[in-house]
Amino acid sequence: MKYLVIYEKSAAGWGAYSPDVPGLSAAAQTLDEVKKLISDTMKFYLAGMRREGERLPTPSAATAIMKVDTHA
């Protein structure tokens, strides 16, 4: 399955979360670190759900890049 992951920069580093997997998030100093951490965390979390016989979240989030005219 493919899940949307949002990466956000902050003053302290980087955060990541997936809107389709509530409660799952990660934080790290660099973008590369947070990408690895959220990937590992999501794999572990979803494997645990499978082990417990729970249904995996259905991917439903989408993303788009929007151009905004700031000179109007």
Explain this structure to me?
This protein has 72 residues and is α+β, with helices and mostly antiparallel strands. The chain has a domain at 1-27. Helix content is 29%, strand content 19%. It is built from one helix and three strands; from the N terminus they run E-E-E-H.
Strand proportion: 15-25%
Uncertain runs: none
Helix-strand pattern: EEEH
Determine the mean pLDDT.
Answer: 95
Distance between the termini: 41 Å
Shape: flat
Please bin the fraction of helical residues.
25-40%
Separate helix tally: 1
Report strand order across the widest sheet: 1-2-3
Number of strands: 3
- Main sheet summary: 3 strands, antiparallel
Determine Rg (CA atoms, Å): 15 Å
Structural class comes to alpha+beta
Outline of the structure:
29% of the residues lie in helices and 19% in strands.
What order do the helices and strands come in, and which of them pair?
Blueprint: E1 6-10, E2 13-17, E3 25-28, H1 31-51
Antiparallel strand pairs: 1-2, 2-3
Give a quick set of tags describing it:
72 residues; alpha+beta; three-stranded antiparallel sheet; 1 helix; flat
